[in-house]
TrEMBL record, chain A:
Protein name in the entry: Tricarboxylic transport membrane protein
Originating organism: Marinobacter nauticus
Keywords: Membrane, Transmembrane, Transmembrane helix
Keyword Membrane: yes
Coiled coil: none
Any one Pfam family match given in the protein's UniProt record, by short name: TctB
InterPro entries: DUF1468 (IPR009936)
Transmembrane segments: 24-45, 65-83, 103-135, 141-162
Automatic annotation (TrEMBL), chain B:
Highest taxon listed in the record's lineage: Bacteria
Transmembrane segments: none
Species name: Marinobacter nauticus (Marinobacter hydrocarbonoclasticus)
Record family assignment: Belongs to the UPF0065 (bug) family.
Signal peptide interval: 1-30
Keyword Transmembrane in record: no
Organism taxonomic ancestry: Bacteria, Pseudomonadati, Pseudomonadota, Gammaproteobacteria, Pseudomonadales
Keyword annotations of the record: Receptor, Signal
UniProt name for this protein: BUG/TctC family periplasmic protein
From TrEMBL, chain C:
PANTHER family from the UniProt entry: TRICARBOXYLIC TRANSPORT PROTEIN
Name under which the protein is recorded: Tripartite tricarboxylate transporter TctA family
Matching InterPro entries: DUF112_TM
Length: 178, 330, 492
């Protein structure tokens, strides 16, 4: 059962059609590796003016890996077309998720990814945690106290006990100067 | 955070001022610097030589001034952290950086740096100098630099380094340039990986930092052919300098060493520079520092202020040329 | 006799015991926090050891190292957040166990496997150091090359349900690993002129992103499921169960010792090789990846077997095998000691005092580990609605702290999205990680070999060590194919 046992006994109802995750994934990786091999490598991996041996080329390993992905993606695609995989039970839980829940998660991610330096470790920690608690529909007030308490305690722990500096927040620094 | 630690901050300021005033022997014109923690930026990851030396210096420095917090900001051969320092901004009046050969080598290797490695900084003091040693495995047929160069002109020999663009790699490239030989560079990731290959004789030579190879020279597994500083090292009596041993082979001006010195943003407060110079003078003459140096085969750095700047400037010229000739400029 | 009393005077001091206990405790706690690694903890503790006695100072650092090796597994098992790279392997079976309400059993398995492996590793250090050091010195670039080839064959066994997808993931991991400046020529590879990418992709953000973040994303893109108590109060590990895994633990420890004695290979490879070996030989091989006690035991044994053994090249040759031992080497030097043969000649009592302390640290790990399990396992009872935002916060702080860079936060979140997509499409993340770790080692050693031989390929077959690993590689590949054909025939 080692190399490809996504496919197994066929029963009509719990199967995907030809356009199943495996054939799509295979197709996607196939295209990605083609782009990688024939556009990204020639353009973004520079060759030195002189090499002692062709295997020493900076392009050798990326090309090797690229071809590996290309061939296996093709196999996966064909495999997916010939033996459509079964549906998973977990998919059920993924239907009908409130949009707000996902939007709030993205917002929290954006705060960390984009505004960490501006809001500082504590600030962004509080904002993001509050958003995420709201996303789960938590209502009791003490939970929101936690959302403030945790970032404060953890940052102080990082900074003072572990001696790991975290940003204070350029926004607050700018405000303090006025 | 600022408000939360107002209390702690004031106490440390008081402590620092008293310490400094004591240090200056009562001169004590309660200057305001340092009125915050000093941050010492290490442009490499935790655990390397630069990090280790910086933490020691920070430890000694904070006994004289205020708390010194060490921050590791590795990236692109030290140029990321150095670029951040050059940009300045809030807090840069308490920010120091432990510069090393990477400061000039990085500047000669990396494209479009947005700073000038000489003009954009205040140079405080070169603190520690570690010589490099040219070593060959004990099984090597070469016993002098002259023999080695003769052989390297006949055949292709190889040298190891802990990575491309390290001062050890560049020392080898400089050697290659000056002697007009075709040494092959074999890069490893860190001296820990490079050393076994040298000991086993898989590579022919290395221009390693003294502390890395010293125990192996002592135990007879490596032969030291020359030290790369203009003076012989007291740790390796009888081992000639490269300039002596390589005379006649183009090595008359060969000089490399791993130096570690403090730099800061160019608009660093004048009073801070003075206090740092005094504090460094004091700790560097202290027993703690003097006992620390031999463990690394190191000597105290001498260049202060503008002398230090001049030294960096000449280093930069040297490495730029080597990088150009070795085709390393990107 | 004189020596023994000298050793005892050096070793029997309250300071030493305190240092070991404090070290192991710091290591376990820091190791368990995502993003904070034992390496960082050792580097941060170093300045505090400047003023200590040499033995005390080094025992503190070694304690942190060992604690950190184990600590990484706690959060890996409880919240799928590997505290250390090697714990990524523990998570493969540890986290499914926790989800099935067997968190306590998984944690105890990890602890006792770690302790046994640690002990074996220490014994190897004390009795076979000289012998193993000789092997390490005979490990040149060609030998490394074959070792890496052999290690790459384990990808198939950690690929979960689909080996094809696993190999694709490994290929992608290798591609990501080539980002940065070329190691030989210094040319830019896939950096897109971004400074943050010149030093390769940082490891910790990738690790946390790949494993911890997908759990968070998955939670917020699914409907709220009722909180399942992971029941730390649940069944513990019985001696009978542990005895069943003992063979695996011992084998894993030996693998760990060998890998650890060779500089520059690392605990992560050891953990995965041990895991793959256990899976190959286990009667319950089909349960691997789904919550198998033996899987956790194998991973932790391989991981911790490395800890004592990395001190072998350090103490006997003065060669640090990884960053942590490099810092410990620094600590030796600061105290005026030079590891290597000279140390054994001139400071033998000190070496033996260190050995005593290192042995004691294994036992300290039992107590500290048990306490840690008790306190950390509270995590398992916190509802995910509250836990996950806090985990995310830790991950973000941790990713930032590695390089003090916000770029790494973005990188971690990006790998989080990738890991999430992997989860949804049935692609295993572990092969991606292995490809990322081993890809550069494969390339480096291939190139070094060709450089030192000036292009002569016969060097790849130059000695017995190379041949051993060539044969292991061939056997491992042949074995995978054999299983594949058997599986096919059964299906037909």
């Amino acid at each position: 059962m080692e190399l490809s046992d996504d496919q197994s006994t066929h029963t009509a109802n719990d199967e995907y059609g030809r356009l199943n995750p495996n054939s799509l994934l295979g197709g996607l990786f196939f295209v990605v590796s083609l782009v990688f091999l024939f556009y990204v490598i020639p353009n973004y991996i520079n060759l030195p003016p002189y090499m002692q041996h062709p295997l020493l080329s900076p392009r050798f390993l990326p090309q090797l890996a690229g071809w590996l992905v290309l061939i296996l993606a093709f196999v996966l695609m064909v495999n997916g077309l010939l033996y459509p995989p079964k549906r998973e039970e977990a998919d059920e839980l993924r239907q009908g998720v409130p949009v707000l829940r996902q939007v709030l998660m993205l917002a929290a991610g954006a705060i960390y990814a984009v505004f960490f330096e501006q809001f500082g470790a504590i600030g962004s920690g509080i904002f993001a945690s509050v958003l995420l608690f709201m996303a789960s529909g938590l209502k009791s007030a003490w939970i929101y106290v936690l959302a403030v308490l945790f970032p404060v305690v953890v940052s102080l722990l990082f900074i003072h006990v572990l001696n790991v500096p975290l940003p204070v927040g350029t926004l607050w620094e700018a405000l303090l100067q006025f | 955070m600022i408000e939360l630690f107002g209390l702690r901050l004031k106490r440390s300021v008081l402590g620092a001022v008293t310490a400094v005033s004591l240090a200056c022997g009562g001169l004590a014109q309660a200057e305001e610097w340092p009125d915050d923690n000093i941050r010492l930026v290490v442009p490499y990851s935790a655990g390397g030589t630069t990090d280790l030396l910086s933490r020691k210096v920070a430890d000694l420095l904070q006994r004289e001034l205020s708390t010194v917090v060490v921050e590791n900001r590795p990236g692109a051969g030290s140029t990321v952290a150095t670029g951040q320092l050059a940009r300045g901004g809030r807090g840069s009046d308490h920010m120091l950086l432990m510069a090393s050969p990477g400061h000039t080598i990085g500047a000669s290797l990396y494209p479009n740096l947005r700073y000038d490695p000489v003009a954009d900084f205040a140079f405080i003091r070169n603190v520690i100098n570690i010589p490099n040693v040219m070593v060959v495995p004990a099984s090597s047929p070469y016993n002098t630099v002259a023999e080695f160069v003769e052989a390297a002109r006949e055949q292709q020999l190889s040298f190891s380094s802990p990575g491309i663009g390290s001062s050890i790699h560049m020392s080898g490239e400089l050697f290659k340039n000056l002697t007009k030989t075709q040494l092959v560079h074999v890069p490893f990731r860190g001296s820990g990986e490079a050393l076994p290959a040298l000991l086993a004789g898989d590579v022919d030579v290395a221009f390693e930092n003294m502390p890395t190879v010293y125990p192996h020279i002592q135990s007879g597994k490596l032969k030291a052919l020359a030290v790369t500083t203009p003076q012989e090292s007291e740790f390796l009596p009888g081992v000639p300098t490269m300039q002596q041993a390589g005379a006649g082979y183009g090595l008359e001006d060969y000089e490399t060493s791993a130096w570690f010195g403090l730099i800061a943003h160019k608009s660093f407060p004048e009073s801070g520079l003075e206090k740092l110079e005094l504090a460094l003078e004091k700790i560097m003459s202290g027993d703690d520092f003097q006992n620390f140096l031999p463990q690394f085969g190191a000597v105290a750095g001498e260049e202060v202020g503008e002398d230090f700047r001049a030294m960096v400037k000449s280093e930069l010229a040297k490495w730029s040329e080597v990088a150009e000739q070795a085709n390393l400029k990107r | 006799m004189e020596n023994i009393s000298e050793v005892l005077t050096l070793f029997l001091s309250i300071d030493n015991f305190m240092a070991i206990a404090a070290g192991v405790l710091i290591g376990v706690v820091v190791g368990a926090i995502p993003g904070l690694t034992a390496t960082m903890a050792v580097a941060l503790a170093l300045p505090f050891t400047f003023s200590m006695e040499p033995v005390t100072a080094i025992l503190l650092l070694v304690g942190i190292y060992k604690g950190g090796m184990y600590g990484g597994s706690i959060t890996a098992i409880l919240i799928r957040t590997p505290g250390s790279p090697a714990a990524a392997c523990t998570l493969l079976d540890g986290y499914p166990m926790a989800q099935q309400g067997q968190a306590k059993k998984a944690l105890k398995t990890a602890l006792y496997s770690s302790v046994v492996a640690d002990l074996i590793s220490n014994v190897a250090l004390i009795f076979f150091a000289a012998y193993l050091a000789k092997i390490a010195l005979n490990f040149g670039p060609p030998e490394y090359f074959w070792l890496i080839c052999f290690s790459l064959t384990i990808i198939v066994s950690v690929s979960g349900n689909s080996a094809i997808k696993g190999l694709i993931a490994a290929g992608l991991g290798i591609i990501i690993s080539t980002i940065g400046l070329d190691a030989v020529y210094g040319t830019q590879r896939l950096t897109f002129d971004n400074y943050n990418l010149m030093d390769r992709v940082s490891f910790i953000p990738l690790l946390i992103g790949l494993f911890a973040i997908p759990e968070v994303i998955d939670f917020y893109t699914s409907r709220v499921a009722p909180h399942i108590r992971t029941a730390v109060s649940g069944a513990s590990l019985t001696w009978k169960e542990f005895k069943g895994s003992l063979k695996t633990v011992i084998r894993g420890s030996v693998i760990g010792v060998i890998i650890g004695a060779i500089p520059g290979t690392g605990a992560t490879s050891a953990a995965f090789i041990s895991y793959s070996e256990a899976k190959r030989t286990s009667p319950r091989k089909d349960n691997f990846g789904k919550g198998e006690v033996e899987g956790v035991a194998a991973a932790e044994a391989g991981n911790n077997g490395v800890a004592g053994a990395t001190l072998i090249p350090l103490l006997s040759l003065g060669i640090p095998g990884d960053v942590i031992t490099a810092i410990i080497l620094g600590a030796f030097m600061i105290h005026g000691l030079t590891p290597g043969p000279v140390l054994f000649q001139e400071n033998l009592p000190l070496v033996y005092a260190l050995f005593c302390g290192i042995l004691v640290s294994s036992f300290v790990l039992v107590f500290v580990g048990n306490a840690a399990i008790r306190y950390f396992s509270i995590i398992a009872d916190i509802p995910k609605t509250i836990l996950l935002p806090i985990v995310l916060m830790f991950c973000i702080y941790g990713a930032y702290a590695v390089n003090n860079s916000t770029f790494d936060i973005g990188l971690m979140l990006a790998f989080g999205v990738l890991g999430f997509l992997f989860n949804r499409t049935g692609v295993a993340a572990a092969p991606f990680l292995i490809g990322f770790i081993l890809g550069p080692m494969f390339e480096d050693n291939l190139r070094r070999t060709l450089l030192i031989s000036k292009g002569d390929p016969t060097i790849f077959f130059r000695g017995p060590i190379a041949w051993v690993f060539i044969m292991l590689t061939v056997a491992s590949v042949a074995f995978a194919f054999r299983r594949y054909w058997i599986a096919r025939r059964e299906q037909a």
